[in-house]
Predict the 3D structure of the following.
Amino acid sequence: MSEWPAYRQEAFGDPYLVWHDGPDFTEFQARFAADPEQATRMLAAGLAEGDALAARTPRALALTPGQRAELVRLLTEALPTANPGVRLEAGASLFALTGSPEWSVPVVEVLSSGAHWGVRLDAAIRLMAFPPTPGLVAGAVQA
């Protein structure tokens, strides 16, 4: 059994409050600073369980180049089989970590998918961070 659910609760708090009020990254940031390898393993476990919070969290971290590369690898590997929530957060995090607007593609895909309206709304919100490239605008218009 994965350690992610217990770790998630300790690092972020009650799941309902994380959903309702939004995540507070303070405790996770402290854990990451103290033991980045353990925290990264836990994010990988969260990604494996399909938790969008694990895909969102890298945007809240101060990273060394090596840590950044490791998180880019984890997020990129998770994308092909990820659920819509993870896909949109991974795309947004990959953009934040790399600066490459190509990562809007999974976010636009979620926006134009048959996913729950709340997930599609989150995708639309995440797209605000991306530069308005012709491909992104065209994809958003089609959604």
About this structure: Residues 84-98 form the longest helix (15 residues). Residues 101 and 130 are 6 Å apart (CA to CA). The chain has ten helices and no strands.
